[in-house]
Description:
This protein is an alpha+beta fold. It has helices at about 1-25, 55-70, 75-80, 80-85, 170-175, 180, 320-330, and strands at about 35-50, 90, 115-120, 125-130, 135-140, 145-150, 155-160, 185-190, 195-200, 205-210, 215-225, 230-240, 250-260, 265-275, 295-300, 305-310. Keywords: Signal.
Amino acid sequence: MLGRRLLLLALIVLATPQAARADEPKLRDRLTIPKQGHLELQRALIADLDGVQLKAVADVVKLRDQLEAIPYDREAVLKWKFLDQLGFTVVKHEIPPSPPGVKIELIQGPAWTTTIYDYNNETFVDRTSYNTTEHIHARSPVSEVSLQRNGDEQSIEHRAPRPQLAGSFNPAEVLGRSTRSLDRPYVLREAGGKTFHVIDFPQFENWLWVDPRQDAILAVATVDKKTNRVFGCTLFLHLQQPSDRCRFPMPRLILDFSMLSEDVCHVTMYHFDQADFETPIKPEQLQVPVKEGAMYAYKTADLDFQRRLPFDVDDLLNLFPESVQKMIQSQ
Length: 331
């Protein structure tokens, strides 16, 4: 009898921490996490921006307030005029002297790329274009496709699906609404006169500034737990009213800062023209059609298969690479 009581007591003790964790508050209970959507946006990267002072969470509050005070103007945003108003400057990189007989050129990427992004729980298709070039990166449970199109020329890399690559566009991460953060418990702390929801990770903390009156994230600051300093932050600006296509206040502009030194940082900018998380995604939005004549490549550790496609493919994304290889070889 005593043994049974001890066993029951042990089970209760083991279950108590799990029950306590389940009862801890999580932001998923009050913030929307879209499961599918259609986005139309522009993206830009400033390699080095000088003059940004982001050491403490209070600095993040101050910077967002300064940016939000500048009236929204689409043309001014796309020409980065707001940076001048804040006294920021883009660091100019000088080309080193060329060795004898060698010419070194500084290649400047496009100022903005235009993206149409469709996704659901399992599949995404990212169609990004600049100048005359279009790049499609897509992944489904069946395969992963990377397609480069310039004029009539098309080249394709086809492989088994991989986990999403670090640095690639991910709506949940960009919008600050990933389950990685919102499924974790938080504590409330004050900084810069604002209340933050602080989410703990092994080496850092995410400080989320959430509007107390609505389903809106205003900023996220990432703080190093050893130094207690900000090493990155995301600002959500010019929030729009909720609609039948987006139930939460969607930002028109998102700025993502990654600190490099005391006052120099990388900045990635996202400007949204459309965001629809409610209209069901059509099957054709998650397809990658390919024309005859495209250069097709399927590579693994043991295989390097490259051929011109001898036929049109209505949807390469939902075909296994092995199947496409056999189809080509059978022609």
